[in-house]
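Worked Example 4.2. Consider the chain below.
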Amino acid sequence: MSTVINRTQYPRSTGGLLEMTVNFRAIAAFFLGCLTPIPFQSIGIVYIGEVALLAVATSVAFTKMARESFWSPTATRFLVLLALMLTGYVTSDLIRHTPAEDYVRGWSKVVFIMTDFVAIYYLVRRNSSAIPSFLIGYGVSRYVVWVTVYAPILGEGFKDQWKFGAAIPLTLAILCVLAMTKLRVRLVGYAMIALGALHVFLDYRSLGGMCFVLGAIFLATRRTTSGRIVDKRVLSVSAVGCAGVLAYVYLVSQEGHAERRDASNAWRLGTSIALMKGIMRSPLIGSGSWSSDPQMEAWRDEAMESRGVNRNAAGRNDRFTGHSEILQAWYEGGILAVFFFLYYGFRLASTFIMLLRRRVDKLSGIFLFWLLNMTWAFFLSPLNGLVRVEIAFALAIICHLRAEQQEAKASRRTDGAYPARPLLRVAGAAGIRR
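Applying the procedure from the previous section yields the following structure tokens:
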């Protein structure tokens, strides 16, 4: 006997904002996004939005925790692995006798990722309109906080004004506007290439590269009877073309940014080498939250100097901080902390590949950009600050898209198993017209 699936649970492909309803969770997502980047000093830097998301997560825990239908298998795995990661941090800190002010910050980092995820999962579950709503609020507020809080402290001489200021908010704004309009997809592709070139010229190389990848994907789309899809053969051509343009822009911009880029490359390499040496020294038990080990600093400085870069000339401080989410988690929390990131990394890759096979719609740009951004952070960004919320948002997007994919598969299976079809086939074989 076939099971009837409610096909309204998830669309086969998420539509743009104009096709989505404005509802309470979408409005709440916008205001929570606005609150998220606003910092205050408590146990380290905490964000007002995270406190609000904690309240939402607490409410969800009390009202939804016992409802198995609310939690997708992917969401459950993420929460279990985050709990395992927290266990790794607690175990490592107790064994290493980490100071209280450090282990409270380390443990709260993992707890906030969990509560941020639960709250955002609730907001976007079966509710596509909440996705751009949250990002619009987040992008606008992030830029306002930069202008009013951080820029005055760092001063006009700070060299990374664009990178830490307008770059991410502008990119998010453009992607969210595209989700609310009916611009041609290939026009969007050209717009992303132009934006990528701007980022590279202003020395935000990673973000520029992501925009070029998006441009190559959008230029490779074609229309079919079932909607617009990514043509794999055209993608190989557009990728080569975009790579050539990116290389040219990079070389042209190198004259004004070569010294800073060399220092940045040396810093990232040095911290990664130091983290790997620290992990090999103790692969099972971590070194503890916010570990301050002079040996780690020495390994980092040695690696930087081997590339002809002095740490002080690079403008970095003395305290060792990681610059890779997975390596930092392993170094601080031990082997138990790394399992979450292994599964998270696998889901980032598999979901990105799934998006390349999925029908292209107005939210595809947001999905692709966020997964690319989080993939870069997975390998080459520190596990601190707003990254907690950004990881949680990526987890919610992954769950959203996985549920959409599972719903589409269930619908196809139900179509194939519909009880009347075998009878129709028998009738056809007997020469009876349908």
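The mean pLDDT is 86. The chain has 16 helices and four strands. Compare this with Example 4.1 before moving on.
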